[in-house]
Design brief:
Blueprint lengths: L56 H7 L5 H15 L6 H25 L1 H4 L17 H22 L2 H21 L6 H9 L1 H11 L4 H24 L1 H7 L4 H5 L1 H24 L5 H24 L3 H27 L1
Helix pairs in contact: 2-3, 2-8, 2-14, 3-5, 3-6, 3-8, 5-6, 6-7, 6-8, 7-9, 8-9, 9-12, 9-14, 12-13, 13-14
Length: 338
């Protein structure tokens, strides 16, 4: 296990707070997700119902970025930078986290612009600024483009060119590939997992300037995690997505095939803590905790396949995936501090 003593920054400067959870639908990127970076990566189960009846313009503008995702970005991008064990200045660390947050916010704002007609058809998104008519679409478009145009140069010149390149790739995949594909093909779940898993790799390369085994394992972890997470969402929100004209895996391939895919992707996910340990990214705490949670998730998916379970089971899986990822990043922090 690498020593945390070689870090040139305080962990809090990278935005790492152990135990903090991940994103709003995406980096909604997988199966009908709605928030960049995490391809349906972490979907919020609350929807938009918590907004005030007449929120101010600034609040509406900020809401386009899906601000709850900021916590995820702090943990994953800051975590990737921190776990790289590469000394960086406080300025570089802050630029890496801020730049990643901005590119995620820009992608989500552009997603809101492109899917304003779809959001109008779903109860949990109908009260968002665009479908509710509180904001002109052009404002959201300009805001999303502005955040995107600021974030890529910030990462490129304040951290490393590779970090900027990865952020640009994630932005393009999320906005121009994943978002329109959601209306046509359930393959969007797999493609959306790529930008959804990019924040820790952006953080890692912002510090190292190169693709290393440790950073790629973190990327693979989030990619694999998003699939059962997003497929579970697709099952228990299937009717809602169908009504809005979004094509999710259960609709296109059926529940049986969806449950099999959840088992298929949960198997390598359960093994990844071992890869984290052998690449010296994690220690024994992560190895033990991650393995237990990963095997339990696999068991839940196998049980659902055997019992032909439906929406109630899928929602339990969804909630457990949130606990799984939160606990895993908490374990990584404990190992790094140990």
């Amino acid at each position: 296990m690498r020593s945390a003593g070689s870090l040139a920054i305080d962990p809090s400067a990278a935005g790492l707070d152990p135990g903090t959870a991940i994103m709003d639908d995406p980096l909604a990127a997988a199966a009908g997700g709605e928030g960049f970076m995490m391809a349906d990566g972490m979907t919020s189960d609350k929807g938009a119902g918590g907004q005030d009846a007449h929120p101010g313009f600034l609040k509406d503008l900020i809401s386009l970025t899906k601000p709850r995702l900021s916590t995820l970005v702090l943990v994953t991008a800051g975590g990737g930078l921190w776990l790289s064990d590469t000394p960086v200045s406080t300025f570089t660390a802050l630029a890496a986290v801020l730049g990643t947050m901005l590119v995620v916010g820009g992608a989500n704002a552009l997603n809101c612009y492109l899917e304003r007609d779809v959001d109008r058809l779903m109860a949990r998104t109908a009260s968002r600024p665009l479908p509710a008519g509180r904001m002109a679409p052009g404002v959201a478009l300009a805001f999303g483009l502005a955040l995107s145009f600021v974030s890529i140069p910030l990462l490129t010149f304040a951290t490393t060119p590779l970090a900027g390149l990865l952020a640009a790739i994630a932005l393009i995949l999320y906005v121009l590939v994943y978002t329109p594909l959601k209306r046509r093909n359930s393959l969007s779940t797999l493609l959306g997992a790529i930008p959804g898993a990019m924040p820790p790799l952006i953080g890692w390369t912002a510090a190292t300037g190169q693709l290393d085994a440790g950073g790629l394992v973190l990327f693979g972890l989030l990619c694999l995690w998003q699939i059962p997470h997003s497929l579970a969402i697709g099952i228990y929100r299937q009717q809602e997505y169908e009504k809005a004209g979004l094509v999710v895996f259960p609709t296109e391939h059926g529940l049986e095939a969806t449950r099999r895919q959840m088992v298929l992707y949960s198997m390598p996910l359960a093994m990844l803590p071992l890869a984290l340990y052998h690449t010296d990214v994690a220690g024994l705490v992560t190895l033990a905790t991650g393995s237990v949670f990963g095997l339990y998730l696999l068991g839940m998916c196998i049980q659902g396949l055997r019992e032909e379970s439906g929406p109630v089971w899928a929602r339990r899986v969804f909630l457990f995936t949130l606990a799984h990822l939160t606990t895993l990043f908490g374990a990584l922090a404990v190992d790094q501090w140990a």
